[in-house]
Amino acid sequence: YNLNVLLVDDREINLKVAGLMLQKLGCEVETAKNGEVAIAKYDENPKKFDLIIMDIQMPIMDGINATKKLKRKYPENLAPIYGLSAQIPKNLNKTPEELGFDFYLTKPLCLETLEKSLKRIV
C-alpha cells in the first residue's frame, strides 16, 4: 500500500505501534499529537495525504472536532478519515458517518484489521 497516512493520537506508544504497522504495509507515515496539530499538518499540503487515522479522544482538540473542521475546510478533496477508538463502535452510539468519519478502527489495532481497512481505499 503506497499510501501517505497522517496518524493522529495523543499517546506516543500508539503512534509508534500503529506507525510501524502502517510502514510494514508499505505506507509513509506522518504523526500528530492532537487535532490542532493534525489540521496544521494537513493545511501545509492537503494533496499529500491519502488517509487520516484520527484518535477520537484526545486533549486540546479531539478527533471528532478536528474531523468536522477538516470537512468544512476541504468539502471536496479531503482524504478519508478513519476514527480510532478503544471503545467498541457500537458503544459510541453513532455510526462512523454520524461522527464525520469514513470508517472506525478499534484499539488495540492488529495488522490484519489495519490491512483490511486500507483495502477500502485502494
Brief overview:
By secondary structure, the chain is an alpha/beta fold. It is built from four helices and five strands, in the order βαβαβαββα.
Task: Describe, in plain words, how this protein is organized in 3D.
- The protein has 122 residues and is an alpha/beta fold.
- 35% of the residues lie in helices and 20% in strands.
- It is built from four helices and five strands; from the N terminus they run βαβαβαββα.
- The protein has helices at 12-24, 35-44, 63-73, 111-119, and strands at 4-8, 28-32, 51-55, 81-85, 103-106.
- β3 (51-55), α3 (63-73) and β4 form a beta-alpha-beta unit.
- α2 (35-44) runs parallel beside α3.
Provide the helix percentage.
25-40%
* Global morphology: globular
Beta-sheet strand percentage? 15-25%
Structural class: alpha/beta
Work out the helix count: 4
Unreliable spans: none
**Major sheet: size, sense and barrel closure?**
5 strands, parallel
What is the typical, i.e. mean, pLDDT? 94
The side-by-side strand order for the widest beta sheet comes to 2-1-3-4-5
The CA-CA distance between the termini, in Å, is 8 Å
CA-atom Rg in angstroms: 13 Å
Count the strands? 5
- What is the H/E string? EHEHEHEEH
